[in-house]
Amino acid sequence: MKFPENIEEVALLQPDYLGFIFYEKSPRNFEGKISKMPNTIKKTGVFVDASIDFIIEKVKQHDFKAVQLHGAEPATYCKKIKDTLISIDRPHKSSKPVRSPGDDKIEIWKVFSIKDTFDFDVLKPYEDIVDCFLFDTKGKEKGGNGYTFDWSVLKNYSSSTPFILSGGIGVEEIDSVLSFLNLPESKYLYAIDINSRFEIQPGLKNIEELKKFKKLLSTGC
Asked: What's the predicted TM-score (pTM) here?
């Protein structure tokens, strides 16, 4: 998300999460102020190989409930982020580790890009650290490439860590999404991430297309 009025319009659709990118090379780079929105919507900060101090600054500034790491961040870095987030003095502070997506603690999502194949063994060092993996399409840009990867790769997903399906998902993919939901490999699917296929321009979402997708996804037809 990027534009104030558009943010408010999308918030009215009551998504579970709304993402804000903090990466200067992205055309969706966010530099504004986020309007107040229902607590049911978890504001999510998206970062690419950013410093820990920068991430913590933005978490505090915007009251983010989730942090999405979209670069080449190693597991040791993710652990430092996790430990630092736990130590933040927040209303929802807990002495328990950040592990369960959907609760009141700040979630950590680690992104991995996939094209035709993927070695899921690379996820193992992250499994006891992050709350979710997000699988995006490998392309020229850091996300927002506008096309899907081969979801059949997820047949080889051996982790029990929840994952988010991302990458080029639009209204035209609704049948594929619904079919995927009925497959065994969707067992640990936590959420569907949508972005570029619903844009009028980078960061500006088409509200009618979002409404259509939400209706199709919820009704299954």
From this structure: 0.89
